[in-house]
């Protein structure tokens, strides 16, 4: 007599990993079928980079080296804006009843959240790479070695994960897809209130306090230092603290909210 394996007797870890991979694949297929989000996430940072480098760059740095200063800020602006839209996909799944359908299946329900976040991370890293390639074409000349490039991408990835989990909170609280999208406007303007395009030392004192004490500034400073060969200083510790601390808190909150919303 041959024994059969029911879904409930499968190893839990293997089951969970399989469910997460399935959800990641589902979300990536959505991206390929609706590439408008990817196109927007590319057009916006490239347009901003060209604007600051060629329109404002001459006034900010007459030596022509402003592109090296601006590119790290553009990368974080791009990554943050795209990551802030993660919650929109979750809200869409909630209001259209897709999540209810998933709950009727023998899957690890938390894989729905993880699938959205990881798929968005992969999409973001691809767009970040493409933005860097365009930056190289317009004169960006990084001095980073292989390890520094890997560290820079690691910091960008942590920032993406932090913003993505924060976005999930808004996606779970919102009743409509449009409501979930409001979070992206907040994140879009966050890098402008940082050292992304001008040093914080040039800002008024009150504004500088805000700029020096928000997540984008240490993240940008760390990426800039890694790519340009400058001393990292304590910006890396602050960047990791913000990304890991705030990201972990957002993960816990979004997990609790997801359970509450889907148990109604």
UniProtKB/TrEMBL annotation:
Cellular component terms per the entry's GO annotation: ATP-binding cassette (ABC) transporter complex
Pfam families recorded: ABC2_membrane (PF01061)
Membrane topology, as annotated: Multi-pass membrane protein
Lineage: superkingdom: Bacteria
Transmembrane segments: 38-57, 69-90, 125-143, 149-173, 180-198, 236-259
Keyword Iron: no
A GO MF term: ABC-type transporter activity
UniProt keyword terms in alphabetical order: Antibiotic resistance, Cell membrane, Membrane, Transmembrane, Transmembrane helix, Transport
GO biological process, one term: response to antibiotic
Domain called ABC transmembrane type-2: residue spans: 36-261
Cellular localization per UniProt: Cell membrane; Membrane
Family: Belongs to the ABC-2 integral membrane protein family.
PANTHER family: NODULATION PROTEIN J
Protein name as annotated: Transport permease protein
Organism: Actinoalloteichus fjordicus
Organism lineage string: Bacteria, Bacillati, Actinomycetota, Actinomycetes, Pseudonocardiales
């Amino acid at each position: 007599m041959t024994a059969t394996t029911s879904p409930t007797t499968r190893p839990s870890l293997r089951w969970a990993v399989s469910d997460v991979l399935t959800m990641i694949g589902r979300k990536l297929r959505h991206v390929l079928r609706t590439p408008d989000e990817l196109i927007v996430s590319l057009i916006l940072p490239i347009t901003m980079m060209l604007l600051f480098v060629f329109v404002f760059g001459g006034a900010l740095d007459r030596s022509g080296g402003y592109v090296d200063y601006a590119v790290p800020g553009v990368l974080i602006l791009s990554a943050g804006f795209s990551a802030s839209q993660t919650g929109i996909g979750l809200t869409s799944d909630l209001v259209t009843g897709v999540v209810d359908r998933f709950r009727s299946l023998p899957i690890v329900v938390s894989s729905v959240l993880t699938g959205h976040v990881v798929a968005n991370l992969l999409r973001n890293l691809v767009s970040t790479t493409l933005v860097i390639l365009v930056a190289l074409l317009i004169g960006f000349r990084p001095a980073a070695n292989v390890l520094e490039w890997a560290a820079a991408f690691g910091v960008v990835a942590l920032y993406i994960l932090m913003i993505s989990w924060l976005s999930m909170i808004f996606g779970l609280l919102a009743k409509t897809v449009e409501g979930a999208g409001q979070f992206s406007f907040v994140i879009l303007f966050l890098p402008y209130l940082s050292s992304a395009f001008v040093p914080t030392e040039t800002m008024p004192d009150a504004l500088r306090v805000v700029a020096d004490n928000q997540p984008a500034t240490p993240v940008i400073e760390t990426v800039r230092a890694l790519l340009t060969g400058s001393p990292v200083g304590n910006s890396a510790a602050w960047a990791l603290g913000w990304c890991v601390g705030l990201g972990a808190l957002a993960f816990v909150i979004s997990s609790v909210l997801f359970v509450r919303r889907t148990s109604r």
